[in-house]
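Priority: low. Protein: Neprosin PEP catalytic domain-containing protein. Input follows.
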Amino acid sequence: MAATRACLVALAVALSFLFLEGPAAVLAAPAKTAESLEQRRREAQSLLRRLNKPPVASFQSPDGDVIDCVHISKQPAFDHPLLKNHTIQMRPSYNPGGMYHDPTIAPHPITQTWHQNGKCPENTIPIQRTKEQDVLRASSIKRYGKKRPRSIPNLSSINDPDTTNITRGHQHAIASTSVDKCHGTKATFNLWQPMIARANDFSLAQFWISGGSYQGNDLNTIEVGWQVYPQMYNDNNARLFIFSTHDAYQTGCYNLKCSGFVQTDNQIALGGTISPVSTYGGTQYDLDILVWKDPKSGNWWLQVGTNNVGYWPSLIFSYLADSASTVQWGGEVFSPDAGQTSTQMGSGHFPEEGFGKASYIKNIQVVDSSNNLKPPSDVKTIAKQQNCYNAKNGMSSDMGTYIYYGGPGKNSNCP
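Result:
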């Protein structure tokens, strides 16, 4: 018996030395990984406490979202240091003059999916609740809800070879114009649900209102449109989004994931699913989006459909505190992985296929310094990889100034 115990002790000692030499290091790795994951979760919970404000009411949306109705005075905007004592402007002072509208064309209505289960009461705003898994899907907690720094191109010089490192991973098919003292833009977006080929890809259609530059790290943008972005939303739905930055994307965020945008509307959830979407050769669904600078307050107001959703206070910007100098409209696909992606842009079909098959943005107008909407002049199309994604612009009596854009991505002519 004593001999048996002695053997067992010797075996245990031998094994302890064996594991210290090799496998112990391997066994330590999972512990470190678990510790790292726990740290990420603590950081995520800290962020969630800042983002998710106490709701007055909540709704479970059929698409899996939870929509919180937050009192208008408790929204994330007022975490901004410049908005601590901000007085909410409940409605714009003036609407732009000269809105394009063809009364003979009855638009097919678009709704947000969460409306099926309720509406937020007066004096509250709907906010898509951020969940822990949403934050943990991001490349880092600090990057959640943000665009990659210096990764969005200076679109007015997208073909400049010096911008290659900035545009890596991003492909655009857009129309662009320079406007002296631009105070906004309006456009009608054709709504689609493009196929996303890779987990970290996104596809979107939007307009960019901008001033400043990358070189000075003072690029200001206001961006609005629809996007399909599985990493952000954990699904392939088309979703309404906004974005803004005052420092060339070093800061800024999607929707209400940081402070800045002041929402006043209780019906539109930024980041919420919009439906239905267009079908190839079938019914087309459109969404009107307008952003303009209020002549009295100077704030940049957002209107989606007929809803005045809210505004970006002018004091959070530098260049846009006065006016914009460039406006672009079109599509973008982002893929961080090597090689050409087959993620679709728009409908996934090229502009030449035309109405009902290719995606479009129509009734494009700009707001001048007198607060009047007018057709843009000297519009140029920009598409660097035209065999992957392309853009064509034009003008007609039924579509006003328009752009057809999009494509399938990787194909025999775009390897």
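The longest strand covers residues 170-182. Residues 226 and 240 are 4 Å apart (CA to CA).
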